[in-house]
Design a protein that fits this description.
Distance between the termini: 65 Å
Oligomer: single chain
Number of helices: 29
Bound molecules: zinc ion
Largest sheet: 8 strands, mixed
Structural class: alpha/beta
Helix content: 25-40%
Radius of gyration: 29 Å
Number of strands: 32
Length: about 1050
């Protein structure tokens, strides 16, 4: 392991004012102006007159390069219409997606007629549209390859990535660079072991006992000011003003009712200490009971539900005694043994028992939904997912519903038939798959075949699942070089990051790369080896873009690595004096798409300014947005929607051709993320946001984000479908994907960090004692070109008891539903309405519990089911989050909303309710685990003026420094003697002392857990950065809303109102 330069940006980071990192020039290609890219002649005046020759060629005229044909007219058709045109170069083998829907009929699929509209997906996900006789195909003459476990589930050698057990771990042990930069690969790998600390944090049930006893009345020492007391306070004693049924902004109590600002430090104990009556036990499951007396109410803040850190790793068997187990908290540290149901990392349900009827589900007020993260990384201690090869016949499937063979399909008739657990159809067992049944009714070979004993397996896909040869791994980089991007150092940071990441691209002949830059024109580069240096080819016509070459824009990385590095090194200096301020984002991605169209692949865009020209150009809506929000304009939410359909239409076409777009927004200004983000959202990509960009402190994060982006386990040209038992049906999919037919979603790109939420509704009843099964099938191409079907199964018991639903409720998935609902809501409804909706979500659930499951004697109490007792806290935090606050910038809110849909399960809660720990006393806390498990409630009362605190949500890491921190500690951590000496553009350093080492260890551990480098920010009391920090103190009363205690009281009040 290398010297850990924690937090340091990659070496060539450019200060905005300094010379571009590569300007030193020795390596910059020497160029004949007009023929190849190169540094601008030194003699040229640097001011207005200078236009880099390659950036502004006269329209239609090839810029210098003798280039084969840039002439616009030559390829007009490619750009002028959305129709898929024949690919310029036939990809290896068959033509991709010729004309027709890219998911055309499966090639070689003899057994399926070609009349079905989407045979591709039918084959992939198995639509029941094919008559059984047709689909079952020839007798499965191929035995399971390799026999049961011997050569088990042979993963092709290339597939080191996620198939093989051992490879898995090795591979994901961490991107190499990561290591150099911070602690490196090892962590990454561990990463996937599950966030240890988290667990500690949210171990919920453990502290149940805590609330079973009669809540003692204690002083409420918190920062709260007692709510104003009004007269006539019925059940709650002193119903504060905010308690009364006044409609706040949208029925949700907000700032208007809150008078007291939070007291930051050491608020004096409230004088209104009250006793709470004993709480009778309610239901056998010891729900948390919050007593509320009929006198002035006060709740002991130490008694109210908070995530409690735990510190040990939990071992979790998915099924025991033929019954599903309730999974551990998603944020905890656990190791899974798949004993029939898949790991909860792959799928978890809002309730671990399924209601028998739709009526029962509505009564519970909870949604029935699954969080699916089909490529989620396992813990290295877990058995990896096995690859099963059925040979030419392909995986065994139900002939009616096309569900895949799984442990819950029941073999009958001495094994000659099997009954599908999804549709109930009685299938004939293929002769070569026959096995006798044992005395227990199970197949004798069940334990030797992963598909019969494991909840998750990966099948090798046959030709039937391909419409063309599996695509190569194509990475195309598109970099903004307009004036602002250059001046702020964004271009230099992007080029540096790409250059350093090239070595992390998957190895092999199938990995291809391409690059282009853009401002008001688009510049492609011919990276072909034979050429001495990269040749720039300019596309000046941004209204009708085309690709200047049919070949050589995207070439195998092995053939062009040197050229590419050289080019990346010279780009910042080539454009050093660029005065073009316009950015043709839409046209540029369209042009890049045209180059990628024959293959598909990942398009990584580095964008720095508002797209101002060309296709899909945008206007600044920021000013408009701020005005509207502050004036209470009803339709301000429309600013969170894309401005028009231009980019969406383009994105759909990209998705059809398997192009996945990630956008890295590196900016110091408004870029209209609401509009831009529609492209990644539709193509299975994501948005990264560096604002306000600092080349000093953000370059390291950019580099690490990019590195993880290209090196993490991922797949291409994927299609996913979730099937379920008869009785329920899929209602909706939510996430980043493109959907063209009702049953399947298309994912041009899918990686280990992406999740999809799937909601269900009843269309029939279940019998008590039966099980409801869910099966997710993801057909995808690995980065090494194998076609695979990853199948995850979850079978849950059905119940007709409402109490069971609450007992088996899953707070992580439930909150994920609420979070996505809110993220969608803010784009279509006024904020006040969204706050009201999330409030109602919470109140309705607890009302149902109160009404049907709690004892009569507990009228005056707020009773929270143990399983979801943290829901109020998370709901409160959500209502104060950036997405739902009035005072956040438009782009910040858009980013927040775009971040939510693909959020992996373990990061859902921290995104809204971050983790806070003290760091000035780290050396007193023992090992890393205990350092991270000693989390603090998000309340200013836990901040001391003598302390330094770290708060992280998986994306940002804020350091708050009290006003009276000792010089010694400042010196140890920051290397300065006073707070003022710490630069605002903060980079965490490692110094040679135990405290600094401990802090760096902790930060690296968090990075490992979150798969994220984290953006470091320094927060000081009394300036805007301090305000930012305090905005996360969600338990305190603030201008944005109630305190936690008040919020509980408010919920109680709402429930009582509904009870009347
Ligand atoms: Zn079936």
């Amino acid at each position: 392991m290398q010297n850990l330069q924690i937090g340091r940006p990659p070496p060539p980071s450019a200060a905005p004012s300094g010379p571009p990192p590569y300007l030193s020039g020795s390596v910059a290609p020497s160029v004949t102006v007009g023929s190849r890219p190169g540094p601008p002649p030194q003699t040229l005046p640097s001011r207005p007159q200078y236009q880099p020759p390659f950036t502004r060629p006269p329209p239609g005229i090839p810029n210098g390069p003798p280039s084969a044909g840039i002439p616009g007219p030559r390829f007009p058709s490619a750009a002028s219409s959305m129709e898929p045109s024949p690919p310029a170069i036939p990809p290896q083998g068959s033509l991709p997606f010729p004309g027709s829907p890219p998911h055309g009929p499966p090639v070689n699929n003899i057994s399926q007629p070609s009349v079905y509209p989407s045979q591709y997906s039918a084959a992939a996900a198995g639509v029941p549209m094919v008559p059984p006789s047709l689909v079952s195909g020839p007798p499965h003459s191929q035995p399971l390859m390799g026999g049961p476990l011997s050569q088990p589930y042979m993963s092709p050698p290339q597939m080191q990535q996620y198939t093989g057990p051992s490879q898995m771990q090795q591979q994901y042990t961490g991107p190499p660079q990561m290591q150099q930069q911070y602690t490196g690969p090892p962590q990454m790998q561990q990463q996937y072991t599950g966030p240890p600390q988290m667990q500690q944090q949210y171990t919920g049930p453990a502290h149940m006992q805590q609330y079973t006893g009669p809540p003692q009345m204690q002083q409420y020492p918190g920062p709260l000011q007692p709510p104003p007391i009004s007269s006539g306070a019925p059940p709650f004693g002193s119903p504060p003003v905010w308690q009364q049924p006044r409609p706040g902004p949208g029925g949700f109590p907000m700032s208007s009712m809150v008078q007291a600002p939070p007291q930051m430090f050491g608020a004096s104990p409230s004088s209104l200490t009250q006793r709470m009556p004993p709480v009778p036990p309610v239901m056998g499951n010891s729900p948390l009971a919050m007593a509320q007396p009929s006198t002035p109410s006060h709740v002991d803040p130490r008694q109210i539900p908070r995530p409690i850190p735990g510190s040990s790793v939990e071992f979790f068997e998915t099924r025991q005694g033929n019954q599903a187990n309730n999974p551990p908290s998603a944020t905890s540290d656990f190791v899974v043994k798949d004993t029939g149901n898949c790991s909860p990392r792959l799928m978890r349900c809002t309730m671990n028992q399924v209601p028998c009827t739709g009526d029962l589900l509505s009564t519970s007020s909870m949604p029935l939904a699954l969080m699916v993260q089909p490529l989620a990384l396992p813990n290295p201690s877990e058995e990896p997912i096995q690859v099963v090869d059925f040979g030419e016949s392909g995986p065994l499937r139900c002939s009616r519903c096309k569900g895949y063979i799984n442990p819950f399909m029941k073999f009958v008739d001495q094994g000659r038939h099997f009954i599908c657990n999804l549709c109930g159809f009685n299938n004939e067992t293929p002769r070569d798959y026959f096995s006798n049944l044992g005395p227990d009714g199970r197949r004798r070979d069940a334990d030797e075949r992963p598909e019969l004993c494991r909840g998750a397996v990966e099948f090798v896909a046959t030709k039937e699942y391909m419409v063309r040869d599996p695509m190569p791994a194509v990475f195309f980089f598109l970099v903004d070089v307009s004036m602002n991007a250059i001046v702020t150092g964004a271009t230099a940071a992007a080029c540096s990051a790409i250059s350093q990441c090239i070595t992390d691209l998957p190895e092999g002949p199938r990995t291809m790369v391409g690059i282009a830059t853009f401002d008001s024109a688009i510049h492609f580069y011919n990276l072909k080896r034979a050429l001495q240096q990269p040749l720039m080819l300019v596309v000046p016509d941004i209204q009708d873009v085309y690709t200047p070459l049919h070949t050589d824009l995207i070439v195998p990385v092995a053939e062009c690595r040197k050229h590419l590095e050289q080019l990346l090194e010279s780009i910042p200096s080539m454009f050093e004096s660029n005065k073009v301020v316009d950015s043709a984002f839409g046209s540029a991605i369209k042009a890049a798409f045209l180059a990628m169209k024959p293959t598909g692949g990942k398009l990584l865009v580095f964008q720095s300014v508002l797209p101002s020209i060309g296709t899909g150009s945008l206007s600044s809506r920021e000013t408009e947005g701020r005005t509207n929000v502050s004036s209470g304009e009803k339709e301000a939410y429309k600013l969170l929607q894309p401005v028009d359909m231009t980019l969406k239409t383009m994105a759909i076409e990209f998705a059809e051709h398997q192009v996945c777009v990630d956008v890295f927004i590196i900016t110091q200004a408004f870029v209209d993320i609401a509009s831009v983000s529609v492209v990644p959202r539709t193509t299975g990509g994501q948005v990264y946001y560096y604002y306000p960009f600092s080349s000093l402190s953000d370059a390291a994060k950019l580099y690490n984000d990019l590195r993880w982006n290209i090196s993490r386990p991922q797949g291409f040209e994927a299609v996913m479908r979730v099937r379920c038992s008869q009785g329920v049906q899929v209602q909706e999919y939510l996430g980043n994907f493109c959907k063209r037919i009702p049953t399947d979603i298309d994912l041009p790109g899918i990686d280990c960090d992406k999740s999809i939420l799937v909601t269900f509704k009843h269309d029939d009843k279940f019998q008590e004692g039966t099980e409801c099964a869910f099966q997710c099938a993801l057909l995808y191409t690995t980065i090494y070109g194998q076609r695979r079907i990853r199948v995850s199964n979850l079978s849950l018991p059905c119940t007709s008891m409402l109490g069971n639903l609450f007992r088996a409720a899953d707070i992580d998935t439930l909150f994920a539903c609420l979070l996505r609902q809110a993220a969608t809501g803010i784009q279509s409804s006024p904020l006040s309405q969204v706050r009201e909706q999330i409030m109602n979500f919470c109140v309705n659930i607890f009302h149902s519990y109160r009404k049907f499951c709690a004892s009569v004697s507990s009228t005056g109490q707020l009773i929270l089911p143990e399983s979801i007792k943290l829901l109020p806290l998370y709901t409160l935090a959500l209502s104060k989050s950036i997405g739902l606050r009035n005072d956040a910038l438009l782009d910040e809110r858009s980013y927040w909303a775009s971040h939510v849909p693909p959020l992996p399960i373990p990061l859902v809660v921290p995104w809204v309710y971050p983790r806070m720990i003290s760091i000035h006393d780290l050396t007193l806390k023992g090992n890393n685990d205990s350092k991270l498990s000693s989390t603090l409630p998000l309340s200013a009362e836990h901040l001391s003026d003598n302390g330094i605190y770290l708060l992280e949500n998986g994306e940002d890491c804020l350091f708050f420094i009290g006003n009276s921190v000792s010089t010694e500690i400042l010196q140890q951590i920051f290397g300065v003697n006073s707070v003022d000496g710490i630069p605002t553009q903060f980079v965490l350093q490692q110094y040679d002392n135990t405290l600094s080492n401990a802090l760096n260890d902790v930060v690296n551990e968090i990075r490992r857990q979150r798969s994220s480098f984290l953006r470091m920010r320094l927060c000081r009391k009394g300036d805007p950065s301090g305000m930012l920090f305090f905005s996360y103190m969600v338990e305190d009363k603030a201008p944005g809303g109630l305190s936690y205690v008040e919020f509980l009281v408010h919920i109680h009040r709402q429930i009582q109102t509904k009870m009347e």
